[in-house]
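Suppose you are handed only these lines of text.
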Amino acid sequence: MNYCLETFFTSANINQIMLFCRAPSAESSTGLPPLLTSLLDALSRLLKPTLPPEIHSLLFPAVPTRARQAIINRYDPGEGITPHVDLLGRFGDGIVGVSFGSGCVMQFASGLKDQAYGVYLPERSIIVMSGDARYKWSHGIEEKTMDYVQTPDTLSGDAGGRWMKRTMRISITFRWLLPGAEVVGGAEDRDPSG
Ligand SMILES: O=C(O)CCC(=O)C(=O)O
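From them, the structure of the protein bound to 2-oxoglutaric acid can be written out as follows.
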């Protein structure tokens, strides 16, 4: 979090940073900043026991062949991101993100199924989106300063809840660029938050 604040969010009007790295090749090895590479290594280790093996190797292939993008978003309390499905023509399957500093509720909605759910992402939690979650459900964050979060009472079985105040949240999300999508420019590139 401090690294992002000191390195990227040096002015109050910067709230989103996009970083791109090329697919590894014999000629070039341009990569993400070391801290983000270490974060990816840590995510790979942490998620190995939990994720189905095919999803783990989609996100963390032994030999990556595609270009990765990292988006770092900073949200002050009351800020959010418009519901969206990540650009179909630019990003592939397999998205992994981490919340730092604050939790928030992320809204998932499926127009096809006419369903919507709010999922609380606690501080330091990891989210993985793949398959239908990536392609068929939109995700977004409402512009609120607090989230009502259900906390099922495991003893009585009664579902209760409480308001969770948001503080500054920084999210780091990694995506795969589709072949050719490294060429940036044009309306398609605008991220919904900007
Ligand atoms: O802040 C987040 O966790 C989500 C970010 C996001 O959806 C995006 O950058 O497109």
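What can we learn from it? The first helix runs from residue 2 to 7. The CA atoms of residues 37 and 68 lie 11 Å apart.
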